[in-house]
Amino acid sequence: MPEVLSQTLSIPGLGWMVLAIFLAGMVRGFAGFGTALVALPILGQYVPPIWTIVVIIVADLIGASLNVPRALRDGQPKDVGVMLLGAVLALPVGLSLLLAISPELFRYIVSIMALIVPGLLMVGFRLRRPLTRPILFGAGAASGILGGLSGLAGPPVILLFMASSRPVAAIRGNIMAYLFGFALLTLLVLWPQGRLDLGAVMLGLVLAGPNLAGNMLGAAIFRPDRERLYRVVGYTITAVSALSGLPLWD
């Protein structure tokens, strides 16, 4: 174990990964999402695709855990459960696709998706229809495929809720609870497949501290009446991270 830890601490780009995971945690703490959107484009520059997903899962499960009780109180757990059902059925499809693509293509997918989501929300994309169970299930299934392929499970769910007319606190709670549940599901799927590399798990544990600190800071400054400010900050950090993760700059 000490040898694995020393190898982890010597990984190139660790400082940038610590900064990215801290900022990602801060965005997640006040917006309810952002860990993967912010951190994955940076992590993808230094570690293999399957590692990035494991690292995000481990760091996020620890980092976001303190905010889950509030998320469940503010959100609608039944709706979250419907989406998770769709996700668990579709997740293996996404993971199969992940193992078939190159690291460079993985980075393009992650960065492009991280740009599309805030872009759509910033231009005012809104959903006029009520969120029925089939719609929730479909969003969960889309999230499962995308999350398995790129580690970005959030975009379909984020778009669905943030484009709805639900209160800010409920939107934040639903997204946060869903992403925490999805991380658990992914862990349970990867474990029997032998995909939980010890080095990736150790890196996730190392980054869990900065992620937890970011989550606590983000949650402490969350105020529902400052929704516009939080969205602008979250979108900006996500966009900068996505642009920096494009292989074009290598």
From TrEMBL:
Species of origin: Thalassovita litoralis
Q: What PANTHER family has UniProt attached to this entry?
A: MEMBRANE TRANSPORTER PROTEIN, TRANSMEMBRANE PROTEIN YFCA
Q: Transmembrane residues, as ranges?
A: 16-43, 50-68, 80-101, 108-127, 139-163, 175-192, 198-222, 229-249
Top-level taxonomic group? Bacteria
Q: Which family does it belong to?
A: Belongs to the 4-toluene sulfonate uptake permease (TSUP) (TC 2.A.102) family.
Which keywords, in A-to-Z order, does the entry hold?
Answer: Cell membrane, Membrane, Transmembrane, Transmembrane helix, Transport
The entry's cellular-component GO terms read:
plasma membrane
Concerning Pfam families, the annotation shows: TauE
Is the keyword Transmembrane helix in the record?
yes
Write the protein's name.
Probable membrane transporter protein
**Topology class, membrane:** Multi-pass membrane protein
Q: Where in the cell?
A: Cell membrane
Is Repressor a UniProt keyword of this protein? no
Q: What is its main location?
A: membrane
UniProt xrefs under InterPro entries:
TM_pro_TauE-like, TSUP
